[in-house]
Amino acid sequence: MDQDHVVTHHLPCCLAALSEALAEASLEPKSPSSFWKRLSVAASGSIDRCLSGSFSEPVVAQTVSRLLTPSGRLLISSSMPIRDLDFFSKPYTDFWQAPVQPPMANRGASGIDGVISTAAGALHPGHWRCGHATRSECLSAFGD
User: Fold this and answer.
1) Each residue's pLDDT tens digit, 93-117
2) Where in the sequence is the domain holding 105, given as residue range(s)?
3) Which label site among 21, 107, 112, 132 has the fewest CB atoms less than 10 Å from its CB?
4) 88 lies in a domain?
5) CATH classification of the domain holding 67
6) Are 120 and 80 in contact (CB under 8 A)?
7) What secondary structure, in 3-state letters, does 7-30 show?
8) Is residue 5 in a domain?
9) How many domains does the chain have?
10) How many CB atoms lie within 10 A of CB 143?
11) Mind telling me which Gene3D superfamilies this protein's record contains (predicted)?
12) Does 131 map to a domain?
């Protein structure tokens, strides 16, 4: 599992035990250093300048990443939209505005029909909400 021999600490335990131990330790979360914040702002500005005035997959990914409401769901299909959203999404500065539901993905052999069916299922009232009927939006990023 560590073919490059770079692991310095190995914790043989289940995730539940690890999360409980970390919670009991009451570790204070650290914010990123000012160096990483400045680097992130500079990289974001550079990407924005490169993408401005164009219409491309990265621009669509950036836009899609900002359209969801806190109750919205995102369905990503295929490999390129997943990569574009991973590379070009804009982080939310206000935690409370970020979507609560994790994104969904569908990369099966069923093609576009399967992706559309998955999106329709994600919109079904009560989906991902333990059977409680709710109305929500679902945004899908298709392509390749």
Assistant:
1) 777 777 777 788 876 666 778 878 8
2) 58-144
3) 132
4) yes
5) 3.40.50.970
6) no
7) CCCCCCCCHHHHHHHHHHHCCCCC
8) no
9) 1
10) 13
11) 3.40.50.970
12) yes
